[in-house]
Write a structure and sequence with these properties.
The structure holds 2 protein chains of 2 kinds. By secondary structure, chain A is of the alpha+beta class. In chain A, the strands form 4 sheets. Chain A has a 6-stranded mixed sheet, sandwiched between helices. A 5-stranded antiparallel sheet of chain A has the order 13-12-11-14-20. In chain A, strands 15-19-16-17-18 form a 5-stranded antiparallel sheet, with no helix packed on it. The longest helix of chain A is centred in the middle third of the chain and has 18 residues. The mean pLDDT of chain A is 89. By secondary structure, chain B is mostly helical. Chain B starts with 5 loop residues before the first helix and ends in a 9-residue tail after the last helix. Classes of the chains: A alpha+beta, B mainly alpha. The interface between A and B is medium-sized, with 29 and 26 residues.
Chain lengths: 346, 275
């Protein structure tokens, strides 16, 4: 049985934070609905961790407000905000056992000692580490340490759970496994969660909504599908997934590319443009008079990737379903067919 | 690290043997001197009997006073230096990293000032302390000893703080609701145990062995008492030196064993990681 929490709404309003001449947060605003998992995504140095730390109270802000559950906590120190954080580096207290780590956190939250053992056992079960309570952190693998850190954070039933790139230090297989578990547990417990990552795939899989950051600003917030298929800016399009920049001409909301017409997303300019087309929005048809030449093919399991050069030298990446590249070999002439999916131009 | 070759093992034994000779010969000589009358070569345990015979003499009361003062000052110096330096070093590392070099410079400065020179500066300070603030009790020398110990305590704490992820540990505890004193006492101190014990060792060693400042400011500590006794009875002084040396070694070994046992419980040398 999973004990759910009373979910809390969070509002980060017009936050600004400057380090010297660098604006880590530039008029940053974000709302989290109760029980929602929002991922902040962006390249290194874009300010996503600063935003998370501002919410946690570990970083002050120059201006703006942090409101949690209707209460302004902007000036409250970290230890007086009802939150719990899981860090990128393993943050277990090395001198305490697994159970000791969780009990320590519960003790700080004034949980009666008779209820602590029960909470420890329950939360360790929740993360699949029942029976590991008497081990020390050094006796656990990295993935297990992060599970314990997650159990400790969940045990205190915080208003907001903060995850600061918690999977970055793990190897690929464990990362995927733990990512799915975090999502399962977060959904079960129903805790409002802010998840910071630079891994787009992680964000797309785990989040209810994604906020993409660039240079301290939130450039787009939306559900993963929207962020992927309707990027608001070329930066978002470039950062989320892979895009091909194909030369074309835009007029009246459509672009003419490779002799075909592609609808454009709002915000695209007119005139000569580069249209950002996803690799999976292109299909290939072998033909002797095709505009492209196959350069290389690669099998990726469920999909295949084919690199094609156009007559003007542009390299285009095409993603096909697993078997559809069969028969294509480097040197083949192919025609590129663009799906009629709205794309962004720059 | 590769296996130890027979040649390497012999080399280690020789080095260990030489080191033991280097340290044990003076101690054996001291023990011999405490029981052998220098002029006649006669062996008796008079000095030891005087210490443990239950009698009272001026020498023994002077020694007791010096030892008591030194032990009190050692405890004071440990408490003050750690109480002063640990929070400061944590604060500077977390909030004012640019000040690390300044703190290091200030803490290491006493190394460059000879004790005699230090006394010249301390004399007027202690004149004020003795007459206007406190009194002329020897134990107030503990403040001066804190200065003497600063470089060593700083170095021990510095290496301890470098060995832990100070920022993550303290921020984790803070995010769970820990106040700064709780972070310090319940999170950082347990993880700095080795560094703290090293600090205690070195402070004990410095305070119990300090002579110059106490002598020049006319205070009575262990070393000045031994000096006084040595002027009239070198054998008792030798016996007491040996006793104190043995006691100090015993204390340090005991503390070290306790810490090693705790460390082994938390971080055994053989990892049993789970993949």
């Amino acid at each position: 049985m999973t004990e759910s929490v009373t979910s809390t709404a969070v509002t980060l309003s017009h936050l600004t934070r400057t380090f010297g001449k660098v604006k880590a947060l530039d008029d940053f605003s974000l709302d989290l609905a109760p029980g929602e998992l929002v991922a902040l995504l962006g390249p290194s140095g874009c300010g996503k961790t600063t935003a998370l730390r501002a919410l946690a109270g570990l970083e002050g802000v120059d201006s703006g407000a942090v409101v949690v559950g209707g209460r302004d906590v902007t000036r409250l120190p970290a230890n007086r905000r009802d939150m719990a954080m899981v860090f990128q580096s393993y943050s277990l207290f090395p001198h305490l056992t697994v159970a000791g780590n969780i009990e320590f956190a519960l003790g700080l939250r004034k949980v009666p000692s008779r209820r602590r053992a029960e909470a420890v056992a329950h939360n360790l079960e929740l993360v699949g580490l029942g029976g590991h309570g008497d081990r020390y952190p050094h006796q656990l693998s990295g993935g297990q340490q992060q599970r314990v850190a997650l159990a400790r954070a969940l045990a205190v039933r915080p208003q907001v759970l903060l995850l600061d790139e918690p999977l970055s230090a793990l190897d690929a297989k464990v990362r995927v496994q733990l990512r799915d578990e975090i999502r399962r547990i977060q959904t079960e417990v129903g805790i409002t969660t802010l998840f910071v990552t630079h891994d787009q795939e992680e964000a797309l899989v785990i989040a209810d909504r994604i906020g993409v950051m660039e240079s301290g600003r939130l450039v787009q917030v939306g559900d993963p599908r929207e962020i992927y298929s309707r990027p608001a800016t070329p930066f978002v399009a470039d950062f989320i997934g892979t895009t091909n920049a194909l030369q074309g001409h835009a007029i009246d909301g459509v672009a003419h590319v490779l002799g075909q017409t592609v609808p454009l997303l709002p915000g695209s300019p007119t005139g000569p443009v580069s249209v950002l087309i996803r690799p999976e929005s292109i299909t290939l048809r072998p033909t002797a008079d095709g505009a492209g030449t196959v350069v290389s093919t690669g099998f990726m399991g469920a999909t295949s990737r084919v690199r094609v050069t156009l007559t003007d030298g542009t390299l285009v990446l095409v993603q096909l379903r697993g078997s559809t590249r069969d028969g294509l070999v480097p040197g083949d002439r192919v025609a590129l067919e663009l799906a009629s999916i709205p794309a962004l131009a720059r | 690290m590769g296996p130890v070759t027979p040649r390497g093992a012999w080399f280690r034994r020789i080095v260990l043997g030489l080191a033991l000779v280097y340290f044990l010969v003076p101690l054996a000589s001291l023990a011999d001197f405490s029981v052998r009358f220098p002029l006649t070569g006669k062996v008796d345990a008079a000095a030891w009997q005087a210490l443990f015979g239950g009698g009272e003499s001026d020498k023994l009361s002077l020694l007791r006073e010096g030892l008591t003062n030194s032990l009190i000052m050692a405890v004071m110096a440990v408490v003050i230096s750690l109480g002063l330096l640990l929070p400061t070093m944590v604060l500077v590392r977390l909030r004012l990293p640019r000040m690390i070099k300044v703190i290091e410079f200030v803490c290491l400065l006493p190394l460059t000032v000879p004790a005699v020179v230090l006394v010249v500066g301390l004399a007027p300070v202690y004149l004020v302390i003795s007459t206007k603030i406190l009194d002329s009790n020897t134990i107030w020398l503990a403040f001066a000893y804190v200065i003497l110990c600063l470089p060593y305590v700083y170095r021990a704490l510095d290496s301890g703080l470098r060995a832990i992820d100070l920022k993550t540990l303290s921020e984790t505890a803070r995010s769970f609701g820990a106040s700064w004193p709780t972070v310090l006492m319940r999170v950082l101190v347990p993880n700095l145990r080795s560094a703290l014990v090293s600090s205690v060792f070195v402070t004990l060693a410095v305070v119990l062995g300090e002579f110059t400042i106490a002598r020049m400011l006319a205070r009575t500590n262990l070393q000045t008492a031994l000096f006084e006794i040595n002027l009239s009875d070198g054998q008792i002084a030798a016996a007491v030196s040996l006793l104190i040396l043995g006691g100090t070694i015993l204390l340090m070994v005991t503390l070290d064993l306790i810490v090693a046992l705790q460390e082994r419980r938390i971080r055994p040398s053989t990892r049993s990681d789970v993949s």
